[in-house]
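// run 5 | inverse folding | seed 20
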């Protein structure tokens, strides 16, 4: 029989983990015994409320803020999570933006912002977390 996440003390970082899909992922993983680091950028208060909810249900969590378009801030966030919990085992990247616009109103800067947050930030976090996990 395999050990559970709580028996292994596994740590997960959920980017964008305070609202919408990320909140659901954070709560689900906490319920499965993971120690959860909940990332937020503009919704850090929501992340702190979610930490309280997880802890009130017997889980272990932390809230951490970072602008993932800032490469050094993204790397520092991952380092801080690993330092706080002593390890990092899983990264779930839910941080994303979506600002729908009619094609005729879309600008190149809109595409760049979406690409920076939805693709480049994901790469930076995955690269740095992967190196820590190894």
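// decoded
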């Amino acid at each position: 029989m395999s050990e559970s996440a709580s028996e292994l003390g596994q740590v997960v970082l959920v980017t964008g983990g305070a609202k919408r899909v990320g909140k659901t992922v954070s709560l689900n993983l906490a319920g499965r015994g993971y120690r959860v680091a909940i990332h937020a950028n503009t919704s850090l208060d929501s992340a702190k409320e979610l930490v309280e909810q997880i802890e009130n249900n017997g889980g272990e969590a932390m809230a951490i803020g970072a602008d993932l378009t800032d490469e050094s801030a993204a790397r520092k966030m991952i380092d801080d999570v690993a330092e706080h919990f002593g390890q990092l085992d899983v990264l779930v990247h839910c941080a994303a933006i979506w600002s729908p616009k009619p094609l005729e109103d879309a600008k190149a800067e809109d595409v760049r912002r979406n690409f920076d947050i939805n693709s480049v930030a994901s790469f930076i976090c995955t690269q740095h977390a992967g190196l820590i996990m190894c």
